[in-house]
Amino acid sequence: MADTDPEALEREIERTRADLAVTVDAIVDRVSPKRVAERGVARVRANAGQLVAAARDMVGGVTSPAKYAEPSYGEDEGWQDDFPTRNLPPILIGVGAVVVLSAAIALWRRRRR
Predict the structure, then answer these.
(1) pLDDT digit string (tens) for 37-78?
(2) CA distance linking residue 90 with residue 54, whole number of Å
(3) Is residue 68 part of a domain?
(4) Does residue 1 belong to any structural domain of this protein?
């Protein structure tokens, strides 16, 4: 230990303190309630956006006007194939999830006041 320069030790200590300060600041920023809430809201918005896009894709095929402009009522009774089957349960689950999420957000905001 006699070989170590005291000034070098002081520089190392200061560098370690600076690194520790940056680390502590990053931890404080990450666990602050405001940041946690912002990340939660961003995650909910992203999930809701994906849910809406998926529901729009499911329903979009059903309401396409070009698809039903001239239905083919042929002699083979195959006209039912022109109408895509509605996959109603996933749509209902999505709508229910949006309603529950909206109610939860409303209650959360009301309790915060």
Answers:
(1) 888 888 888 888 888 888 778 776 554 445 444 555 555 555
(2) 10
(3) no
(4) no
Whether the per-residue pLDDT at 10 is higher than 70: the answer is yes
Pairwise CA distance, residues 73 & 61, whole Å: 20
Residue with tokens 């939660």: 40
From start to end of 56-101, where are the E strands?
none
- Residue 4 tokens, joined: 């170590």
Asked if residue 35 lies in contact with residue 29, where contact means CB atoms within 8 angstroms, the answer is: yes
Q: What's the structural domain count of the chain?
A: 1
Can you give the residue range of the structural domain that contains 26?
A: 7-61+84-112
The answer to whether 61 touches 46, Cβ cutoff 8 Å, is no
Tell me whether residue 25 is in a domain.
yes
